[in-house]
Amino acid sequence: MTDLRLTARGLARGFSPHTGVRGIDLEVAPGEIHALVGLNGAGKTTLMRLLLGMLRPDSGTARIDGHDVRTAGAATWARVGHLVDGPLCYADLDTRTNLRIAAALRGVPRGRREEAVRAGITAFGLERYAGVRARVLSQGNRRRLGLAAALLHDPSVVVLDEPTDALDPRGVIRLREILLRRAGAGAGVLVSSHHLDEVARIADRVTVLHRGGVIGSLDPEGADIERAFFRLVHADEERHGDREDA
Questions:
Q1: Are 10 and 47 members of one domain?
Q2: Is 88 found in the same domain as 75?
Q3: Mean pLDDT, residues 123-127
Q4: Is the separation of the CB atoms in 12 and 2 below 8 Å?
Q5: Where is average pLDDT lowest: 2-6, 77-81, 136-140, 169-173?
Q6: Tally of structural domains, the chain
Q7: pTM given for the model
Q8: Quick one: pLDDT at residue 2?
């Protein structure tokens, strides 16, 4: 369906008998924030890499705005903003220069690049660090720089892996407001997180991954989302235990 920002159908990629993802179906609609939650090793990052074409699946398909990621052209990728596997920046360049490069790589028109860079610096509170080389930034400020670079071109598809890691409370709030604005403008947003309380603040849908598969969903407005999460994980562990004992 072309009215979906992101689509996964039967996505599978194995690295060993117990790692990877298996048979994942997933959708992210325009204006939706869809969160992935799971324990370490559940497959969240692998799924995001598959959706972004960073990995080739063993089976299944991934689409962005209806286009298969294996054949999507530059115009499709220009609408995508992502941060997976940590911030991508040049250590010997300062924050402003890194963002100028990001704006050029993401197809921001030359006449709008400086405006986009200034907006990114302001949005993530990087004014004090605009002239500071990335190598000496704190981990939290490097994360802010990576997020600013991923979002400065106002993408319609946003994929962020554990975006609040290393952010202080002010940074978390800034990111929350930015993602809500992007979704409000029609973007489809996919985020992974292990902070269930933060997920509940912004997500329209929450999908739970465990052992590389989807095991259920959570109501972000539920009274005890953490208990519901562990109930799903425990039930899946019980099912796997039954199969392994058979």
A1: yes
A2: no
A3: 97
A4: no
A5: 2-6
A6: 2
A7: 0.94
A8: 53
